[in-house]
Design brief:
This protein is an alpha+beta fold and about 350 residues long. It has eight helices and 14 strands. The chain is elongated, with a radius of gyration of 27 Å.
Length: about 350
């Protein structure tokens, strides 16, 4: 029998294992309930409470405020994501966060997309901050080539700490101090370059502000198009989202909905892309003619390779030939490689 819950008194079917947040987003989209500490590829944390909703056991009945990100949806729940009480609660939470956030960074940089936090503010409405402001200024850390930090923008959602632990299992980022004195540190409060960070960029992609960013500003980059593709650096097959401007690759992120990598990727997959249009890159096959490497067509390269294989095999036997494949090939390509040497070469 199909289990049903209700969103604003309208029935929707429940899928097994869903949280209230997942249930509402699946049926009404991601904009219905804002989040700060939640990320789809991280364990639910439930610290910011901005995802709170009203939940009743009967239509328009007495309701209880619940954090939707880690509360399982149950049959017969009446969920009200945007009551007056919930809107007031969210604005109050935003006030507390904004009391420690620099005012000059509430809007996107010129020509850039808003950060996730800036989008939440725009959607929920920037409230008048009634609390005393206390902005902690931190020195920008650009000691590493790719991953940079500016913790003045940190809103203490701790997604970066969890990403470093859950996705990359490096545990470079930690929480130091308590209450309003808490802050993010790298290892034993070192700079990025002194830390054990591997520059995978998981913290950058999950950070909802620019407290963590990279040299390409890919998180807020306004691209002409975003191309979904598969990384070729190894055989895992991570899905990537490539941001392109004027036909040139400007940044790469992991695809959040990818089953293989769940929005994560390594240093090479995320940042090692500038080689693709390097002037020294080989762009066609080359064959040595009269002592000089000369560009040739693929057909000529194949014919030359087959000819030399036959000559060597006929003169020295099949054991004189060996093949080296690559982890960057697919399983199917590696299978064909070994089959070619077993069956064709012998």
């Amino acid at each position: 029998m199909e289990k049903t819950a209700y969103i604003d008194n309208k029935p929707y079917a429940i899928e097994t294992g869903e949280t209230i947040l997942e249930y509402v987003r699946r049926n009404l989209g991601r904009e219905m309930i804002p989040t700060l500490c939640q990320a789809d590829n991280l364990e639910n944390y439930g610290s910011c409470r901005i995802c709170s909703v009203d939940v009743a056991l009967q239509e328009n009945g007495p309701a209880k405020v619940m954090a939707s990100c880690h509360t399982p949806v149950m049959s017969g729940y009446y969920i009200y994501p945007s009551t007056d009480r919930i809107r007031r609660l969210r604005k109050n939470i935003l006030e507390l966060v904004l009391s420690e956030y620099p005012v000059e960074r509430l809007m996107p940089e010129a020509g850039m997309l808003p950060t996730e936090f800036q989008s939440v503010i725009a959607t929920s409405g920037s409230p008048v901050v009634r609390y005393p402001r206390k902005i902690s200024e931190y020195e920008k850390d650009r000691s590493r080539p790719y991953v940079w930090s500016d913790f003045t923008e940190c809103i203490k959602c701790y997604r970066c700490v969890r990403a470093c632990d859950e996705l990359q299992t490096e545990r470079v980022l930690w929480i130091h101090g308590r209450a309003d004195r808490s802050r993010i540190i790298k290892d034993f409060d070192r700079s990025f370059i002194e830390s054990t960070c591997v520059s995978c960029g998981a913290c950058v992609q999950t950070c909802p502000t620019n407290a963590l960013s990279d040299r390409y500003s890919v998180k807020t980059l306004a691209a002409d198009e975003t191309v979904r593709t598969t990384c070729t650096y190894c055989g895992v097959g991570c899905n990537l989202e490539v941001k392109v401007i004027d036909g040139v690759v400007r940044g790469i992120q992991g695809s959040p909905d990818a089953v293989t990598n769940r929005g994560h990727t390594c240093l090479k997959g995320r940042y090692a892309f500038e080689f693709y249009n390097h002037p020294d890159r080989l762009r066609s096959p080359m064959v040595r003619k009269n002592g000089m490497l000369t560009e040739v067509s693929w057909d000529e390269a194949y014919e030359y390779t087959a000819k030399r294989f036959r000559e060597i095999k006929d003169k020295y036997g099949p054991d004189a030939l060996a093949g080296i494949s690559s982890a960057r090939c697919t399983n199917e390509e590696n299978y064909l490689m070994q089959k070619f040497f077993r069956i064709v070469i012998g």
